[in-house]
């Protein structure tokens, strides 16, 4: 199996799991219990993550502060052609 497939199918980082859980909750309409089980998170951990997500978006009126991102000029964010 290609390492990238494993990376996306079996996220190890908590931020990645939280992202996938929130994505499934909002885009796929899955329940909190379903996404917690799917991403191997505790149910109440997902609820807390969801609450923090909503609070942050409400307070900042932005989604850009939710997950860290790289400076557009950094080496890590450039795509090689």
Quick overview of this protein structure:
The chain is mostly helical and 81 residues long. It has helices at 3-9, 14-27, 32-38, 43-60.
Chain-wise SSE layout:
Elements (H helix, E strand, L loop, with lengths): L2 H7 L4 H14 L4 H7 L4 H18 L21
Overall pLDDT confidence? 84
Structural class computed from helices and strand pairing? mainly alpha
Radius of gyration: 15 Å
pLDDT < 50 runs, ≥5 residues: 76-81
Question: What is the beta-strand fraction?
Answer: under 5%
- SS element count, helices: 4
What's the shape?
globular
Number of strands: 0
Largest sheet: none
End-to-end Cα distance: 25 Å
Subunit organisation of the chains:
single chain
Describe this structure in words.
The protein has 81 residues and is mainly alpha-helical. It has a domain at 11-61. The chain has helices at 3-9, 14-27, 32-38, 43-60. Helix 2 runs antiparallel to helix 3 (32-38) and helix 3 (32-38) crosses helix 4 (43-60). The longest helix is centred in the middle third of the chain and has 18 residues, at 43-60. The two termini are 25 Å apart.
């Amino acid at each position: 199996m290609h390492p990238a497939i494993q990376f996306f199918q079996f996220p190890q980082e908590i931020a990645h799991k939280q992202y996938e859980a929130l994505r499934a909750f909002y885009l796929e309409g899955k329940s909190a219990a379903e996404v917690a089980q799917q991403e191997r998170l505790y149910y109440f951990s997902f609820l807390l993550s969801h609450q923090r997500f909503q609070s942050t978006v409400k307070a900042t009126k932005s989604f850009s502060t939710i997950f860290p991102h790289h400076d557009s000029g950094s080496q890590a964010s450039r795509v090689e052609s």
